[in-house]
């Protein structure tokens, strides 16, 4: 059911998108660069959380280097957010169509087993470009996603992802397990994000050598269906979108147990670490409360030179 608040929020979203779409790309790039600098200097949202996460990934990194990395992360996030709203423009279609794909043969071999594929992934800044690649492809894919509170805005972003094609099916994250199993029975790729904290109903794993609680669903689906498990990561390198697929090597598990779920989840999530270390500024979950919900520092010390420094 839509409310007046939903309609007002949706109107504001469409007005913003319309304004951005009226601008040439160089202007959009300039505005996102300026906005990222403003955010970094005056409104650095969730900086204590991001700083703490960086310290977990790079425990020996000096303070100044962490700040430089965070400055780049704010810019990456805001730049990606701006371009995603105009990703359907002809100038941007090359980002999707010319993506460099690694491990596609592994994905196709897994699909050939006719059990579906459990494709785990992480939250990178360029997630909308990643989804668009699946939308325009010919491999049947289902995305488990968290529906927005505003149904009008939620439907808008679903339509945005389908500008490149309708191959990407959306499944709500609150659906029952049998809905995901049905997608696998139809031999679809099922995209599941692992790098989110599920303290209330998750399984403990080691992520960057620190205990982390991730979702149990991927492991449980494998144990119930026998569908192969792969990981996928995506990032920009030299201006080109890269998507890498990698199989998760799993032994045979005789029973569905907490230990089996933990082992599968560990094997999958630890494969993300090398990409996150290589492209930490493109890891959107950097701004999420991952390893803990509370206990972050109130403020991160920054000098005037830190505020005005350039990340170029």
Automatic annotation (TrEMBL):
<keyword id="KW-0808">Transferase</keyword>
<dbReference type="Pfam" id="PF03279">
    <property type="entry name" value="Lip_A_acyltrans"/>
</dbReference>
<dbReference type="InterPro" id="IPR004960">
    <property type="entry name" value="LipA_acyltrans"/>
</dbReference>
<protein>
    <recommendedName>
        <fullName>Lipid A biosynthesis acyltransferase</fullName>
    </recommendedName>
</protein>
<keyword id="KW-0472">Membrane</keyword>
<keyword id="KW-0997">Cell inner membrane</keyword>
<keyword id="KW-1003">Cell membrane</keyword>
<keyword id="KW-0012">Acyltransferase</keyword>
